[in-house]
Design brief:
The structure is a homotetramer. By secondary structure, chain A is α+β, with helices and mostly antiparallel strands. The first copy, chain A, is built from 7 helices and 18 strands.
Chain lengths: ~350, ~350, ~350, ~350
């Protein structure tokens, strides 16, 4: 059944297989009269584009967006916006091994069992290529957020851990994130982390990563109890990104070992404003944004395609082994940074619109 | 807007404030002809009922379920099932402090800002009392699961960590979980953890917890790519439970520090069956169940209501402090065990029904 | 799958079988802070209540509404409102004939085939008793409409035709509708129509009816193109009422025989206001309300339960015949008047809320 | 909010403005493994294509469909199918009058008020050009229907009335419908109706029409009570077609004047099959298909664009008049025949999928 959509009011549906004619999205629920910034979309897509360093896959994706509908004289019409990206790298490959064997940790086996048919070319629908479609939705979400909120609300993410190496969190400068191939915010960690990742890459292996997303100047009131809490929407959205296997808000898993007295985000009035004295809750109370910074972390598993052979089975159920040939992507987590930002933008845009109906 | 529902095909909506006339749920989407086991509902509700030990709140909730619709001659009709529980503990209290001040880490402040009105009696809608409604939905979900799957699919959860104390995971026996007040599965840890929690209780403090949920004999194919992946549905559902702030699937956050070669869930044919040699993915590949055991962990923050005073503000924005009076609940995480099981049952029932439409 | 709900933002779900413990509704999506007028609900329910004249079924439905949630200190909380009505007329009947045979034109045969099980007592879920639940939702919708719109928006319906007898439309006075047992607005037609209907009743027969719904002072802008046009929402809602088999907007079916020049609703500026010179479109252009009066008509089929025997089959597929025993309802269309008003109120409330998101 | 979609399980979303780069649809919810018949789509689109006679608009729409996703090796993948049609007739026109004045009976005024912005070129989103997108969805729906139902289920529509002229219903031959420019099924009426319509066309006027849709060999059980009854889904879908202002099922409005004894669709067992002795209900009982032929009629208003000037106002609220220049379309109802068939196919496909979940 219909399941390729996200959001209730601001609802986007993505489509497209990795090696089909095109990928794209349709966004239904964009209010009319929003200034449309097509350059922002292309700029956001470029952040996600692979092939920009030795740490990301070398596929040449032109990733040129084409807007098919919903815009007139530079503004949104209130009708659906369809945007597509043609798949340019559709050369005829020999997919023999991928076609007949299930790559471990990939969607190959489960898609085959669920659907009885599978587009094996580059992962088809399950390819991370799908995330380009969300980046488009995220850019349009940002245009809505800008219109609704007068604050300096800013959604920013960065890689905070690659395998055994973590950045110094106190050194994160978000302006640096898109200026380095590791998408980290701590320049002082670049050399060490680069060397570490390069050695993994050379060994044909891969590694996991952690990303932290931070939203500043959140308005109070976003999130819909009980089953569409802000926490729930974030968890759902982040887990939908390829290879993400964990999500936490605020102090997250650390809260399991804390005492209540250690976890209190007490409140004070300061200079006629409400100030919180801690942020264990990550900016969410009772599923609703409190006005504090929103803080969320996600873990991305190591790239499943590695040069090291793994045991697997083929379509006929026979034992075999498989490994990736040629160049590979040593850490899929890196490029998830702009994707996580885009998902967060979509969530905030959707919940901001929903919140207009909380009171009359 | 409508947000108090969960699920697409098997969709339940909950209603009710903690100290209003009743709480309950309506489940729309239950197929006809399912054997209705009302005793199971009451049995599941009893597992969640508070006041059964010194470690849970002393509120006397009768929690007697009444079925208003949808059942005829012991079977489901295919029409909505409405079930309610009368709130019996509605004595007139003096809510003075709670009424006028915002309890830190509670939903008081955010509900007030979002809605401009708040039922301050016992937390109103944001009370954990709401979770009784989900337990009812979960019991009915289990009846559907039993009908659909011939396997020995079993959904079982237990507390694996309370503050600084963890169970020995290799010792977990799920049959023990509802026989001890800590909802743990490792009997050998009971004494130490009980003493630890009791000392926290006596000090007027509280503590966080971690729960692990395990589903055995999962069928292959549950989960709807891309935005309704099994991971996404679980993350959304678990985060909707009061006080949950983190969710992970399989190896979860540990995957951030792992190499690709360490995270491989390789596959082998053994005795004409498909066997996985590891389960880092927690039973989900590409958002679809792989047939392995489903493994998920959640973190629950410490009870926010403690006897130790905290800084806060009152409704007029003035600084004040607040603390809970009388008995308190030292670890809200404990009673989340049957609730997490119920949510998982609802997710599996919903995705099992959806999966009937994947192929024709 | 879930199908017992109506509306997107203002969404109500109804539940309950005719002879089960209770019927009711849960309304999810009511904004907070609306003045709650419980007396209006009871007053609206009383308009629909049967047994008030010889022209409606003699079932004694107390129809006392009980509100279980969502209200606090006289205002809506923004949480779901659950309202129930206990079924008081649950005497043990001999349902023999209804149990084993399919009443023609009823839902008996199709429910049996679709669900494999059927609550044969009084029609179960397919009974017109379900419409009481919608009347509750409609009353709450009216409270929202009152809050949103400063206009004198008024939703009023009346019976305009019973069998071969039509009222004089130019004589309709809506204040008269609930003062006569035929729910007509033209007092001058009462005697003739009453005699006509009484003779049908005495002959054990029944007859169809037509209702016209009129909404004055509609705001401009309600209705969501393309698939949630105001026309579409009305058609869907009206057709969901038991026994309704036709819906038309404005000049409706007459438009099939008109010339374009005859159907023009031309526009003029008059006294600084926009005035339309005709209303063939029934107040809707391009699926969006134009500000003209909304006009809609529905046809209700004759009561299917009559004292005259009809051919039918029994559960085993054998030929038999069936007739209603005792008193019957000669024209089900009459009591559809408050139900049609309620549905229209729900549609307008929902679309009014949706329209808040058209522009920012 | 999101409103450009139709269907629950088989859900399509359309996008595109009349004179923007492209129109199209995304269909989410197509089961995997369906044989994909691209030629059927083009064939169905060709039936709807304008410019094929003097009775339809002369716009040259190439209407060549391009499939962007969801198909692999001739079968559906279970992922979304996106199909687009480039707008080739995008010549730069002088839109002066349409740009500044509101055409009566069009969506111009209401779109302007609702959205504050309007793509005035050819009606933009409100143009009947949108219906080409639904025809695509309808063709794909037919592929699903073919797979699910073993019956000879056939969805066929024809024009039964143009203004004052009606066909002889007993003479309808559906094979003739797409062989004549009036989309009628009664060849004997062609000459008279053609002359009639041609004289209207020459006078610069237009006329309304009625279409009857017939579905043979319907399965029993389609339709979801209470609010997604088959009648409701049909009414909603048909009313969403441009210019449709009335819908009736079976005997429809005639039922208002019938006696109960005249409206009985009695049942008999004949040759071990269940046979109905009449079909006043149009094949639907209690909102669920009965297995009889489904019968539905819709009224389409006269083309609003005529050569005869009408009073209207301009954007500044001043009185003016407007008329269409050049060629016009004397009866928009004609081309609604393939569109109505497509909508019916979408409804039946969606409800057929939903019905798989009624019983387990």
């Amino acid at each position: 059944m219909a399941s390729n959509y996200f959001g209730e009011i601001f609802r986007f549906t993505t489509f497209g297989e990795s090696h089909g004619p095109a990928i794209g999205c349709v966004i239904d629920g964009v209010p009319a009269g929003i200034d449309f910034d097509e350059a922002l979309i292309q700029s956001d897509l470029d952040k996600r584009k692979p092939g920009q360093s030795k740490f990301t896959t070398q596929r040449q994706e032109g990733d040129k967006v084409e807007i098919l509908s919903g815009i007139f004289e530079g503004k949104t019409l209130g009708s659906p916006i369809c945007a597509i990206i043609r798949n340019t790298d559709q050369r005829s490959h020999d997919y023999g091994e991928i076609k007949n064997s299930f790559r471990p940790n990939h969607a190959d086996y489960t898609y085959d069992k669920k659907y009885g048919i599978r587009d094996y070319r580059g992962g088809g629908r399950s390819s991370a290529r799908e995330t380009a479609s969300r980046v488009i939705a995220g850019s349009i979400a940002k245009m809505i957020i800008k219109k609704i909120h007068d604050t300096t609300l800013d959604i920013r993410a960065s890689v905070v851990q690659i395998g055994e190496k973590s950045v110094n969190k106190s050194m994160i400068n978000f302006d640096y994130v898109y200026k380095n191939p590791l998408y980290i915010g701590d320049e002082s960690s670049l050399d060490e982390m680069s060397s570490y990742l390069d050695s993994i890459r050379k060994s044909g292996n891969s590694v996991g990563a952690m990303i932290e997303i931070n939203v500043s100047d959140m308005p109070v009131g976003l999130g819909e109890p009980i089953y569409h809490k802000l926490d729930s929407e974030i968890a759902k959205g982040m887990m939908s990104i390829n290879a993400v296997k964990a999500v936490e808000i605020g102090s997250g898993f650390d809260l399991a070992s804390k005492l209540g007295s250690q976890a209190v985000d007490s409140m004070r009035k300061k200079d006629d404003k409400i100030a919180f004295e801690a942020n264990n809750s990550g900016g969410i109370l009772g599923g609703i944004s409190s006005g504090q910074d929103l803080i969320c972390r996600i873990a991305i598993k190591p790239t499943s395609s590695i040069l090291i052979p793994s045991n697997t089975i083929d379509k006929d159920g026979n034992n075999t082994s498989i490994s990736t040939k040629g160049r590979h992507d040593p850490c899929v987590g890196l490029r998830a940074v702009p994707v996580a930002e885009a998902m967060m933008a979509c969530i905030i845009a959707d919940l901001s619109l929903r919140n207009k109906l909380s009171q009359l």
